[in-house]
Amino acid sequence: MSEDGRRLAYDRELAVDDGHEDVVREVVDVIVRTAPEIRGGLVGRRGTADGEGENPSGETQAEADVWADDLLGDRLSALEGVVQYASEERAEVVDCASSSSTGLSVAVDPLDGSSNLASNNPMGTIFGVYDAPIPAQGRDLVAAGYICYGPITTMILATDDGVAEYELADGDATTLREDVRLPAEPTVYGFGGRVPDWPADFRTYAREIESELKLRYGGAMVADVNQVLSYGGIFAYPTLESRPEGKLRLQFEGNPIGYIVERAGGRSSNGRRSLLEAEATDLHERTPVYVGNDGLVDRLEGALA
Ligand code: F6P
Question: Residues 6 or more apart from 221 whose CB is under 8 A from it?
């Protein structure tokens, strides 16, 4: 139950340290209630947003990106224990500290993979709950998760204790899997970017992997990482010749996804070290992202060394 006695959609025990459990549960509750609304509201919002039509990273912003961000921003920043709301769709962090002014910071990618709106393919919502001001390091996360808008709507939620998967319907979360672990025998890979734009060392690694695993790439990180969690394997959006900093955002994508995969028994890397150890310098900074079974990520780091 929440403090006002309302039944929470997400009403399970959470293994979160330092007395943050109530705040994390309320954040998850908002996500669980809002995700079906976001999904339902995609109809009629597949076009480009009015105004600039670009997010702070210079990428095309769909009407649905802005709408999902407005919904999540209003609801998450209204929570007593949330002191900052940051979104891939906003240039600045929203300071929403109440008088108590202690609490957690929430970073959200409201619609990850929204370019898939045009082709009607899966997308997601990613969230990270940091016990530090944003931009923060991944090791400051106390919880992270994502919604996958696939044939059904599911949520992956990671805390320090591990990872669980839920099916979302009618504002409630029903447990599908209590202890999500990467399968020991990996079978799939998905690598973003154009092959001629890959650096030579990554291309050599990719050649090896494609002879061992099956390609599964759909263009939305949430859905592609969800395949890695289901079947084992590796997802990468590497450094590109044309974009040495990579494409994905550390605060909204790299850190939460790295945290989830590590809590599920895998590894994350920016090519040199765990994503969770990467220095956070800028709200919208980009990073190469490599996540998956530890042996595959170890080999990747070796290949890039
Ligand atoms: O950052 C947004 C995103 O859509 C990710 O979800 C995805 O992994 C990537 O970009 C896809 O990029 P591309 O269209 O280059 O494959």
Answer: 112, 113, 124, 126, 235, 237, 248, 253, 257, 289
Taking the C-alpha atoms of residue 108 and residue 127, their distance in angstroms, rounded to an integer, is 4
Whether the CB-CB separation of 248 and 286 falls below 8 Å is answered with yes
* Residue having the nearest C-alpha atom to atom 13 of ligand 1: 219
The answer, yes or no, to whether residue 14 has pLDDT greater than 90, is no
3: its two tokens? 């403090």
Quick one: pLDDT at residue 53?
A: 73
CA-proximal residue: ligand 1, atom 12 (nearest): 219
pLDDT for 3 beyond 80: no
- Judged against a pLDDT cut of 70, whether residue 305 lies above it is answered with yes
Q: How far apart are the C-alpha atoms of 229 and 227, rounded to whole Å? A: 5
Q: At what angle do helices 21-40 and 63-77 cross, to 10 degrees?
A: 150
Listed in order, strand segments (DSSP E) in 29-136 are 82-87, 94-95, 104-112, 123-130
Query: How many alpha carbons lie under 13 Å from residue 257 in its C-beta half-sphere?
Result: 37
Average pLDDT, stretch 265-280? Answer: 98
- 205, amino acid identity: Y
Q: Which two tokens mark 301?
A: 């780091």
Please give the pLDDT value at position 43: 92
Using the 8-state DSSP alphabet, how is residue 243 labeled? B
* DSSP 8-state class, residue 154: E
Pocket of ligand 1 (CB under 6 A): 112-113, 115, 192-193, 219-221, 237, 247-248
- Biggest CA–CA distance in the chain, Å, is 58
Long-range contacts, 45-54 (Cβ 8 Å, 24+): 46/117, 46/118
Identity at 140, one-letter amino acid code: D
| Cα–Cα distance measured from residue 28 to residue 255, given in angstroms and rounded to the nearest whole number | 17
Upper half-sphere CA count for residue 9 (Cβ side, 13 Å): 20
